[in-house]
Amino acid sequence: MAAASLSRLLGIVPQLISRQLFCFHTSQRCCTNVTFGQSLGPTTAAKQENVRKHPAKKQKSGKTAKFPSTNVTWEERLADAVTPLWRMNYEEQLQVKYEAQKRTLQLLTTRITNCSGTDGLCCPLHSTLPSPVTVGYRNKSTFSVNRGPDGNPKTVGHYIGTGKGRNIVCTHSDHLVNMPEKHKQVARGYEQFIRHSPLDPCILFHEGGHWREITVRTNRKGDTMAIVYFHPQDLEKEEISKHQKSLVEYFTTGPGAVCELTSLYFQESAMTRCLHEESPYQLLYGVPYIFEEVLGLTFRISPDAFFQVNTEGAEVLYRTVRDLIRASGDYIVLDVCCGTGAVGLTVCQGAARVIGIELIDQAVEDAQCNAVLNGIDNCEFLKGKAEIVLPELLPSLEGAKFLVAVVNPSRAGLHYRVVRAIRNCEQIRRLVYISCKPDGEAMRNFV
């Protein structure tokens, strides 16, 4: 009754719900609008409470959030966060990864009834396959902008700490062993540019600022694509164009020319992450794509295309997938969450047909282009959500004798409708599940 009276008093016509919540910009405005005992009944009251200031937020251990011991350098802290196994030799790293997958299989085994394999595992576990390249192998790196150890808010690098712990520091990435020198060079150049720019960095959206992170993509030929992310705030288009021009001049004829960029993109967005369809990537300079060779095939890479960050490691992965399929005859491959078509195109030889399913428009366009680039005509790529496309597609394949499903979802795993469709399709004789984190949401798909 009191809530209804308050609605009338404030001139609000709410929908019928079991509970109402009224929000005011300040506590004083609440006290001003809600008058005691008038129209709301004698139990209604609004007053200013004495609010105590919260002490520094503590971690679960009860200790105040802080940085690691000062006897560890900033570079070591960053390496521990980005490449946590860097202190081990490569053979030890492979063993750590093997043991991690063993624990995942043990967990899976405990969740599957009436299953007891060798060594407490539900299936054989092979040794971890090594990467041919272990230093400077990344073909894509994203660098953030925030306050550095010296307090400079225009520092480009990677984060140490967390927003929750209120201890974020942006540290230079020059010492990271997994990052190629070209990526570090572009990051240093971008830092120099924004430090001379009159615009502030955008650290927290509500605090203003414009310059955000930068992504660097390279191929084995040395072509380099840079994508600069920018928050427009309330700048006019003409003002943004002026800063775009300064950015191009810096990387083409200024100090940044040493980076030898082949592509320079610019995306202005008020969102943390958005696709090309939501906020188009603007090509400010150079060619629109870079290309990479994988297992003798050529792949086109657009600014937001998914591509395995270790190209040589990806070749090991795709060979392994090809070996796991082990099919003969007129079989059909279903490449679910196919991205730019890398898996489907590398395993299509010997298959009667490959059908890829992908949500992102640009990725589907890249996949179709990659098929044409390589003269492959037995692959087709469908755009849409896998949980919608796959159940509609499978009935049309009932005449097929042998289907192979290869799924490569994000960390969120497969939608339950995709899992159900695969399990209910008798023609699917083999399933290859590619996961970067099998002990995460993928486990839900397994069981």
Automatic annotation (TrEMBL):
Keyword check for Methyltransferase: yes
Reactions mediated catalytically: uridine(54) in tRNA + S-adenosyl-L-methionine = 5-methyluridine(54) in tRNA + S-adenosyl-L-homocysteine + H(+)
Keyword 4Fe-4S: no
Region: Disordered, residue numbers: 45-65
Active site, per annotation: 436 (nucleophile)
PANTHER family: TRNA (URACIL-5-)-METHYLTRANSFERASE, TRNA (URACIL-5-)-METHYLTRANSFERASE HOMOLOG B
Protein name: tRNA (uracil(54)-C(5))-methyltransferase
